[in-house]
Design a protein that fits this description.
Blueprint (H helix, E strand, L loop, with lengths): L1 H24 L2 E5 L6 H17 L3 E5 L6 H8 L7 E6 L1 H9 L7 H4 E10 L2 E4 L8 H10 L5 E5 L5 H13 L3 E5 L3 H10 L4 E4 L3 H8 L4 E5 L26 E8 L4 H16 L1 H9 L3 E2 L4 H22 L5
Parallel strand pairs: 1-2, 1-3, 6-7
Antiparallel strand pairs: 3-10, 4-10, 4-11, 5-8, 5-9
C-alpha cells in the first residue's frame, strides 16, 4: 500500500514539474538594438553567458539594429508576455526617439515592462587618425577655423546622446557642424576611422577601445563626470571648460507588457547577481560604465523621469528628426 501511495504522489507531481523542465529547455531570447561588436553588444554578451549558467537554460543574443531602436523594440513589444524574450537597448530607444518621431509603432511606457538597468555610462569624443589636432584644444581651434557647415560628425542614431552631444558641443564652441546619422554605432565608428566624418562619439567598450589603443582613433574628451580607468589620460568635457556638454545615458532591460511581476522580479535578480560578479564589475567599470541591477520599480521610475526630462529637452531644442 505504501508503495502505491508513493507512486501516486510521484505521478501527481509530474504536471507541476513539467513547466519547470520545459522552461529549462526554452531559450531566453535577448533582442538588442546594437550591432554585433558594438559597445552595448560588448557589455551584453558576457552578461548573457553568465545568465545562461545561472538560469540553466540557453540564452541567445539577437542583434536587431536600425530605425533608431524601433525594430528591436517592436519585436519585444509584440512578443508573448512569458518572460522568454527581453529587450536590451539604450536610453534613446525608449525615452527620446519615441517622443521625437510622430509615428513610433508602440508606446514604451505601456507596451514594455522595465526589468532593470545594466548600468549608466557616457561617450568619448573621437576623431580619426587623419585629424591634424591631437588634443581637445587643437580640435576646438581646427573646428573654429573651418567654413560654416563644412564639418560633419557621426552619430549612432538620431536623437541619441551621440547626436545631442554634437549639438551641444557645436553650441559651446560657437561652430556649425552637420550631423551624419548611422543606423548603429559600428557603422559610425568604421567611417570615423576611415575619415568619412571628422569626429564622432563612442563608448570605450568593444571595438572603439581597441581602435583607440591601436591608433586608428583619437580620444579627445569624455562626456561623463569622471575620467575612464581604461583611458585615464583623456580629460572630461567638464575639465576642458564645457560642462554644458556633459551627458550620460543608460542601457535598460525590458520585457513585453503583461509579463507576470514574479517573472520580472526573478529576471532582475538574476541579472543583478550576474552584473555584481567581480569580473563583470571590473569589465564595466574599466570602460566607465557604472554597473546597474536596480529593482524593477526603481528602474521604472528612472524611465518615467527621463521621459519627462528628455521630452522637455526635445521641445526646448525644437528637435525634429531628419
Amino acid at each position: 500500500m505504501q508503495r502505491r501511495e508513493l507512486l501516486a504522489a510521484g505521478l501527481a507531481a509530474l504536471p507541476a514539474l513539467a513547466p519547470v523542465a520545459a522552461r529549462a529547455q526554452t531559450p531566453l531570447r535577448i533582442v538588442t538594438t546594437d550591432q554585433p561588436g558594438g559597445g552595448m553588444d560588448a557589455l551584453l554578451r558576457p552578461l548573457a553567458d553568465r545568465l545562461g549558467q545561472s538560469l540553466g537554460r540557453p540564452v541567445l543574443v539577437e542583434n536587431r539594429a536600425g530605425a533608431q531602436g524601433r525594430i528591436g523594440g517592436q519585436v519585444v513589444a509584440t512578443s508573448p508576455p512569458d518572460g522568454n524574450t527581453l529587450l536590451v537597448t539604450v536610453q534613446a530607444g525608449v525615452v527620446i526617439n519615441p517622443q521625437a518621431y510622430p509615428s513610433w509603432p508602440y508606446n514604451p511606457l505601456t507596451d514594455l515592462v522595465p526589468v532593470t538597468d545594466m548600468g549608466r555610462g557616457s561617450l568619448l569624443l573621437l576623431t580619426g587618425p587623419s585629424m591634424p589636432a591631437n588634443d581637445f584644444a587643437g580640435l576646438a581651434k581646427w573646428l573654429q577655423a573651418q567654413p560654416k557647415g563644412s564639418v560633419s560628425y557621426g552619430t549612432y542614431s538620431p536623437g541619441t546622446i551621440s547626436h545631442f552631444g554634437g549639438v551641444l558641443l557645436a553650441k559651446s564652441l560657437g561652430v556649425d557642424m552637420v550631423a551624419v546619422h548611422y543606423k548603429a554605432s559600428g557603422d559610425q565608428v568604421r567611417d570615423l576611422a576611415g575619415g568619412q566624418v571628422a569626429l564622432g562619439w563612442g563608448p570605450a567598450a568593444g571595438s572603439v577601445g581597441q581602435l583607440i589603443k591601436s591608433g586608428r582613433l583619437k580620444a579627445m574628451a569624455y562626456l561623463g563626470p569622471r575620467r575612464l580607468p581604461a583611458f585615464p589620460e583623456v580629460p572630461t568635457i567638464r575639465e576642458l571648460g564645457h560642462p554644458g556638454v556633459e551627458l550620460d545615458g543608460w542601457i535598460g532591460v525590458f520585457a513585453s507588457r503583461g509579463t507576470p511581476a514574479e517573472g520580472v522580479t526573478h529576471l532582475q535578480q538574476e541579472i543583478a547577481r550576474a552584473i555584481a560578479a567581480p569580473q563583470m564589475r571590473d569589465l564595466y567599470l574599466n570602460v566607465g560604465f557604472m554597473p546597474g541591477g536596480a529593482p524593477p520599480a526603481e528602474f521604472a521610475q528612472l524611465v518615467k523621469s527621463d521621459w519627462q526630462r528628455f521630452g522637455e529637452t526635445i521641445r526646448m531644442m525644437d528637435y525634429r528628426p531628419e
